Prior knowledge:
Elements: H1 4-19, E1 27-32, E2 38-42, H2 55-67, E3 76-78, H3 81-84, E4 98-100, H4 101-110, H5 114-125, H6 128-141, H7 164-177, H8 179-182, E5 189-192, E6 195-198, H9 202-206, E7 210-218, E8 222-231, E9 234-243, H10 246-258, H11 275-281
Antiparallel strand pairs: 1-2, 1-9, 3-4, 5-6, 7-8, 8-9
Helix pairs in contact: 2-4, 2-5, 4-5, 5-6
Amino acid sequence: MFSSLRVLLLSSALMALSLSPAFAGHAKFLVDADSGVVLESDNAEELNYPASLTKMMTLYMTFEALHDGRLTWDTRLPISENANSKEPFKFAIGAGNTISVTEAVTGMIVLSTNDAAVAVAEKLGGSEEKFGEMMTAKARQLGMAQTVFRNPAGLPDPAQVTTAKDLAKLGLALMRDYPEEFKLFSQKRMVFRGMKLRGHNGVLNTYPGATGLKTGFTNASGYNLVTSVDRDGHRLIGVVMGGKTAQERDEEMKAMLDKHLPQMKAVVAPKPVTKAAMVAAKP
Length: 283
């Protein structure tokens, strides 16, 4: 059973992540999703650790399996001892129980649940190691030439590396190849077995036009973020890696997007209709 204590611990962990500083190689990249024009690039081909941005590839491969019939949204995924051991973010329903693919996908997007990512990997690849090889092969197919995956959740592994440019390619591939499933990245909250849970993607929650994707953090990676935006017909994919804090990362992403998007038009509140005006308007 997913206890209220687990929810409290999860919330506390999320708060701790937003407050603790980290130092890693900084990089950013911004691309127009429709034209492919690169709008900003800084250290975009330098290797860095993806952290939970890794789950974008796990989700890509989940969507692929849904489309080719290896999975359905109702398929039950066993939670192994291995999956259940993946801290800190998890459903924590205990080894031997199952989750649906729907729950796994939503959990990875909204809460970054590690046990869900591992459950998918073990279902599709048999093991995390094999699935990591499958993920890396898929990365090459998508043009992610510098990316190597070793596990599906993004937990620390010195051999699991990527670049800001490669992650933008993955974001574009998700948008292009699975447009309906891509809409799921806009989810800000979820209900899991009666528990109402809120995500922690600050840019998605506050930036006008933001449509998704994913946050990530480990001590080695710093604070990472991939953001998709659709404003007034302009679709962009932005990547920020190696932020020192979650707030700094989010503000950098917003500032980068602001430079290349049309400004939001001010909303003018309509004047209240007076009784005299209503009388005057009658024929």
